[in-house]
Specification:
Blueprint: H1 14-27, H2 32-37, H3 41-55, H4 61-74, H5 80-90, H6 95-103, H7 110-124, H8 131-139, H9 144-167, H10 182-186
């Protein structure tokens, strides 16, 4: 296994030090994902910028969670599923939404289910979804803007999920109570 360092403000490359300080201020700690990404300052900065842009999108807290967790679960990200479970709790997303996403069971709302289906189609087809998939998403009450905002959310998750797979990022203490096993979730 290749070891990737977990940086802090003293060990990080110069270009990542201020970015880690920002993470610490926003999160009360430096999340392991950010500590890992700090090895490549451009990746950490890109992740932070894209993350903020996605937060500022037209999706509400439930919809943001659906996009994030749909991709996390599809990519079987051992780090991001528990991290986004904690984030969803902090955003006061109903547990029924989070549980359905983590377990691959139906969501309590047809519109959210349409968002999950479209997000998964985007991931599985690598963006090459057909007109029927797009129209079904639009028919569920979403907009063309939101079609493209799904691309934004998927992009953010590719950065984090792939980093976590490569680095085997350890799950931070606050997220451990939400650990997730993709094999158990599939059963």
């Amino acid at each position: 296994m290749i070891d990737f360092p977990l940086h802090d403000e003293t060990t990080a490359p110069e270009g990542s030090k201020a970015l880690l300080a920002k993470s610490k201020k926003q999160n009360g700690m430096i999340p392991g994902l950010h500590a890992t990404m700090a090895e490549a300052p451009g990746l950490l900065e890109g992740y932070q910028v894209v993350g903020q842009l996605f937060l500022d999108s037209s999706f509400d807290k439930d919809e943001l969670t659906v996009v994030w967790q749909s991709v996390n679960v599809e990519h079987a990200c051992h780090y991001c599923v528990p991290a986004h479970t904690a984030i969803a709790k902090g955003m006061k997303v109903d547990d029924s939404i989070t549980d359905a996403l983590r377990n691959g069971t139906p969501l309590p709302d047809d519109r959210l289910e349409a968002l999950r289906a479209f997000t998964l189609a985007m991931v599985r087809e690598r963006g090459g979804v057909d007109d029927l998939a797009v129209q079904s998403f639009l028919d569920a009450g979403f907009t063309k803007r939101q079609v493209l905002e799904v691309v934004l959310g998927v992009s953010q998750k590719v950065m984090s999920n792939y980093t976590n797979h490569l680095a085997r990022t350890p799950i931070d203490a606050p997220f451990r109570k939400f650990e997730w096993d993709p094999v158990a979730a599939a059963v």
